[in-house]
Amino acid sequence: MTTDVLIVGCGKIAGGYDEGRSESDFALSHAAAYRKIPSVRLMACVDPDEQALLHFSKFWNVENPYASVSAIPQESHFSVVSICTPTDRHAESVSQCFRFKPNVIFLEKPIATTASEAMKVISQCQQAGVALIVNYSRRWDLALTDFINALQEGQYGPVRKIVGYYTRGLLNNGSHLLEILLRMLGPLNVEFATLAGKGSGVLDPDIDAVMTSEKGISVHLVSTDAEDFARFEMDIHTANAEIRMLDGGLRWEVRKVQDHPEYAGYRKLGVAEPVAGQYMPVMERAISQVLAEAGGDADYSSAMDALAVQVLCETITGAAHEKRF
Asked: Is the pLDDT of residue 324 over 60?
């Protein structure tokens, strides 16, 4: 059975990241991941930028390009809708696509510009019986999942402190770290937050923050300047090891505690042991779940987790603007 797909928004995450790459490489974008599955047909795409629209439709062999969602014929039906529009268009894009009676909407993070708007989007999808999957991509990183499970099982001893590093705005990029932290530690209380840099502008600044989990684990969120270099990394300190996520999850290192060879009674971190990352396949794994949801019961777990992330983002942002110490 063929699955017909509509892609709304024709930017980098929709397909641009895979232009110039080999088809044998892991897909980094929606279109490339869909194209790897023979039963999927890219039926239509939408973008108000005529040049971007025509380039995208030609490159990915999309049958029907449209300048707007409203231009798509009323009788059209798509089993899957991928929404890759800017954040401030997400809510509108979702509501416009209900008339196509999709089984599932695959939405780029964050859900919307505000938590209240995000809650409304989820509610509308639930009322329409449309599954909503939100692309916080590290949900599909199997190496990260393995480390989260190992930490929660106590394989490295109690977690003491986590330091996360990010660039390019709290909501649009730092929120990836928050999604990981909430899965790893559960609810977080904001102790301190301060505006730290340019981020993505006034609407999405970089913010440094200190938070604590319900078990008293300290979390430090640290922004760096994206004009210098991009960074998305995390240091996890436990009683028996230091675990480092490097290069956005492309690499991992584990340094285990050992007795100090020179100073009796002291312990130190040993040599870093590399662990293979599993970030590159995340888009293909996400699309596999999207297609599975298209034939099953509507799922909202990723959307509810994304809502929790957005609430935490707003709490951190509010604390930073209030200069709450």
From this structure: no
- Among residues 315, 281, 283, 302, which one has the least CA distance to residue 183? 302
Strands 251-259 and 241-246: antiparallel
Average pLDDT, the chain: 95
**Which amino acid, one-letter code, is at 77?**
H
In whole angstroms, give the CA distance from residue 222 to residue 234: 10
Q: How far is CA 46 from CA 18, 31, 113, 149, 282, in A?
A: 18, 13, 21, 40, 24
Are residue 80 and residue 110 in the same domain, yes or no? yes
Residue 188 pairs with which residues in a beta bridge?
213
Any domain includes 306: no
Provide the number of structural domains found in the chain. Answer: 2
Rounded to two decimals, what is the model's pTM? 0.95
Q: Report whether 257 contacts 268 (CB < 8 A).
A: yes
Write down how long the chain is: 325
CATH of the domain at 88: 3.40.50.720
* Rg of the chain, C-alpha, whole Å: 21
pLDDT of 269: 97
